[in-house]
Amino acid sequence: MKFIIQVIIYLILTYLSLSQEAEGQTISKKIEYTCRYNSMFDRGIGYKNYHASLIIQGDKSLYTMKADANNRQDSHLVMVDLEPDSLFTVFKDMESNSLIFEINDMNQRAVYYADTLYPMHWEFLQEKKYISNFECENAKTVFKGRTYIVWYAPSIPVMNGPWKLGGLPGLILEAYDDEDNWHIEFQSEKNIPSIEFHSFDKLLHGNVPGYNNYANEVKKTFNRVSQYLASQQTGNCLSCQTKSTLKLHTWERID
Q1: Cα–Cα distance between 102 and 88 in angstroms, integer?
Q2: Number of domains into which the chain is organized
Q3: pTM for the full model?
Q4: What CATH number does residue 123 fall under?
Q5: 18-52 confidence digits (pLDDT tens)
Q6: Which of 38, 67, 227, 231 could link 181 by a cystine bridge, Cβ 3.0 to 4.6 Å?
């Protein structure tokens, strides 16, 4: 009886799968990650926990990273951040060899920029380890001023990974920079119904500014903030220091 029930369940699942294929529906795969990120990175210590996901659908994927609700914000710290920087939302389209990432400007408005898809050159290392039930190999690259070490699973033949990383012969399940300011680890995977990427598809066919535009806008923003802070430091004494010491800090290092 148990065997008959299992056969019936298998036939139902097979029928549903064939029906979806016949209707042209695509099943997406959602990979969940946990992330520990030092949002102060080059300035000090300020680790927070994040939840990240990578949704892969055919040649397209969408990566997002969101802060956990229980993250504590130190109220005594006064910081000038361009958070969410470029780490938080990345859309990739393999077919057109395109990548788009999102940042929030100083007015908390979403702004999109294009970047090169998988320009990193990987050095293949000899170590292996298991992540969940997947045997993984590791590789290293230097990308936008930081060194990254990743573990990828050749048994999952997807040349993708969290954030902008990818281009390896297997899905990246773990990644971190050599200073361990950003460390992301595989948690789970599951199939989900297909989703629409209309807004990102529209951006792909539009005139999205490139990475150089992003770098220039970041520099302009920091210059404006630096000038404002310097103007607020004027005093009545001749010995007062009036020059701002604000420095440019972004995750992807900008010259």
Answers
A1: 7
A2: 1
A3: 0.81
A4: 2.50.20
A5: 344 434 556 899 999 999 999 888 888 989 999 99
A6: 38
